[in-house]
Structure prediction request, 337 residues.
Amino acid sequence: MQRTNALRPARHVVRPSRWLAVGTLLAALFGFTAFPTTETLEILVDGLLRTARIHVPDDAGTAASYPLVLAFHGSAWNGAIMEETTGLSDLADREQFVVAYPDGTGPSDVRSWNAGFCCSFALERDVDDLAFVDALIDRLIADHSIDPTRVYATGFSNGGMFAYRLAIERPERFAALAVVAGAMYPSQRPPGAPMPILVIHGTDDAVVPYVGGWGALRALSGKTEPALGAVEAVRRWIENNGCPGTPKSVESLRTTRIETYAPCRNGAEVVFITVLDGTHRWPVIEENRSDFLLTDDAFDLYAGLTDADEQIPWDLFENGLDASQVIWEFFEAHDRR
Prediction:
């Protein structure tokens, strides 16, 4: 929780790229650190060959153990899209953790997760994604010196729904979880054990509505019941974790409202981030001048007054939320007791 400073048979095959092999050989010959790598891991679970992209930071091997973040993609995505969208691999290199992007199941590269009430192929065929996650975590702990008390999960959309399911059905495996544009369902109940939870949801999300309900793409997703609203889902975790009913702090920024509920049992705080006018997306910092709070003339004037070697401090003018950074900072503050 908050930090103060029976596995099924599985097999895996790692297939590094040619350039990874070259980089590793050069590192061995000349003594420099190998480049950060993203490898493909294969695990046979219940007769299905499951895959995940595994990104190991460039200094792997220098620390006794590493945190592990599992990042679950949305429906109709895959692990590669999740890696590209979130930028978590770059963050993992800077902050020194291992990140895995598991692939759901489905035709071609259009994948989904069995979240219990959604979605698509995985739900229709009742795929045992819980067994896959169990096998994946155990394999990564064995292969990459992962600290088992610092395993985390996050997910977007259908992946966020699955992250909620992991929090409910596998609480003993995770130190904290984060959900982006996901949903819980009325018949789901937190497990009783306190679990640190971060929830990020946009008020204008039409696919997984902030206020709950079926949302768009109902038939395509195969949802079996309407979702809870984000506020109600957060309330269930506040009660589960023994947090006060009113937030300890509320921070209102240009595009977000951040509510922190603490103190809670075993340090399991709940953080709820509402993205004002936010749609169904993984929030990132926008680097589009049309969104900056500067006119073109003011922008040009500011740039002209800036030394050539000096970067314009974009953070003064950007809109948006860096979800990946916020999620990692939340994870970093918690381990499993």
Summary: Confidence is low (pLDDT under 50) at residues 4-35, 288-292. The radius of gyration is 21 Å. Residues 288-319 form one domain.
